[in-house]
């Protein structure tokens, strides 16, 4: 068997083992940590042998520090756990079933006979695949985590939300930007009905001329302004609407350049989405820290409510810091 075939066979056995542990509530973190560490044991001996990975009271190596180092080697810097559950009976049984799965793999003999370089390549691939499972089943299902520090501006919290979303990949940053703007509008204009659509709902499907319409303004929230957005802005102008583009700070120059190419640079407003949201908190609070804190909590609560109503993915919600408000 070549390296790719060995990886495919062993990872298939591990995936079957992993999925057998799945319940209605998902996959327990112990399954994830055991999977990572048992791959680590495969570096030193194979077939896996309980006498070598089990001390008589605990699964060897199964500690939070080592687990987090494996995650970091694979580009995942978020900690999975401070402790790995090495002494729990459940972890021991999981390790035994993992051993049985990989030892019985069609690639077991080929892997056992492989040299150190091939083994290292295989194990790196197996652990990378396990990290992807952990990201899908744990990290990407956790709410966005932010910190509130009283001496920092409101914009720092909004940036944290977008940075946390950026770590999720995909459309998460755009979705968070759209919904936090919606929450800011609700906070700033409590008497107006602010639309709430899923991020993946195209404007054309709903007949919308922007992400939000506030009186005579059409607001467009984007992390990647392009020509299609400029066509929408032109359409807004034809309807006597003021186009307001809310984007990331580093994208403002690009948006303004595009507007110039379309000869509408002086007819639209391009703003930093972070500062737009922060202003909805700070200005009505008259920059009084206590009132700013209270309004910021209100913003995050409104954001979570709107995300829960519009998005199927609860991980887009934010974990509200306990020291806020």
Characterization of this structure:
By secondary structure, this protein is an alpha/beta fold. The longest helix has 22 residues. The chain is elongated. The strands form two sheets. Strands 2-3-4-5 form a four-stranded mixed beta sheet. It folds into two domains: 139 residues; 175 residues, 3-Layer(aba) Sandwich (Trna Endonuclease, Chain: A, domain 1), CATH 3.40.1350. It has 14 helices and six strands.
Features:
four-stranded mixed β-sheet, 325 residues, Trna Endonuclease, Chain: A, domain 1
The total of helices stands at 14
The whole-angstrom Rg is: 25 Å
Task: Give the domain tally.
Answer: 2
Number of strands: 6
Q: The biggest beta sheet, please? A: 4 strands, mixed
Provide a concise account of the structure shown.
The chain has 325 residues and is α/β, with parallel strands linked by helices. The protein has helices at residues 3-20, 29-41, 50-53, 64-73, 89-103, 108-112, 116-137, 154-166, 172-188, 203-206, 227-238, 252-261, 273-282, 289-310, and strands spanning 144-145, 212-214, 217-221, 242-247, 269-272, 318-319.
């Amino acid at each position: 068997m070549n390296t790719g075939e060995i990886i495919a066979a062993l990872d298939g056995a591990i995936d079957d083992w992993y999925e057998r542990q799945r319940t209605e509530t998902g996959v327990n973190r112990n399954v994830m940590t055991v999977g990572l560490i048992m791959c680590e044991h495969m570096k030193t001996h194979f077939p896996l042998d309980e006498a070598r990975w089990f001390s008589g009271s605990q699964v060897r190596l199964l500690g939070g520090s080592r687990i987090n180092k494996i995650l970091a080697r694979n580009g995942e810097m978020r900690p999975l756990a401070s402790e790995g559950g090495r002494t729990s009976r459940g972890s021991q049984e999981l390790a035994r079933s993992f051993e049985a799965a990989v030892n019985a793999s069609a690639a077991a003999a080929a892997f056992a006979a492989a040299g150190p370089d091939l083994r290292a390549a295989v194990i790196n691939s197996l652990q990378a695949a396990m990290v992807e499972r952990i990201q899908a089943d744990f990290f990407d299902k956790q709410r966005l985590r932010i910190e509130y520090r009283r001496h920092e501006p409101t914009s720092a919290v909004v940036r944290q939300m977008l940075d946390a979303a950026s770590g999720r990949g995909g459309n998460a940053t755009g979705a968070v930007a759209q919904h936090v703007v919606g929450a800011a509008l609700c906070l700033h204009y409590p008497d107006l009905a602010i639309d709430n659509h899923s991020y993946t709902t195209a404007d054309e499907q709903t007949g919308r001329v922007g992400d939000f319409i506030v009186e005579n303004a059409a607001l467009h929230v984007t992390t990647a302004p392009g020509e299609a957005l400029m066509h929408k802005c032109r359409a807004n102008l034809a309807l006597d609407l003021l186009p307001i583009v809310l984007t990331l700070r580093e994208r403002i120059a690009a948006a303004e350049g595009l507007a110039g190419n379309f000869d509408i640079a002086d007819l639209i407003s391009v703003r930093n989405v972070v500062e737009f949201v922060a202003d909805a908190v700070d200005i009505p609070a008259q920059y009084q820290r206590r009132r700013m804190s209270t309004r910021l909590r209100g913003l995050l609560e409104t954001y979570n409510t709107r995300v829960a109503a519009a998005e199927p993915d609860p991980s887009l919600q934010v974990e509200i810091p306990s020291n806020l408000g």
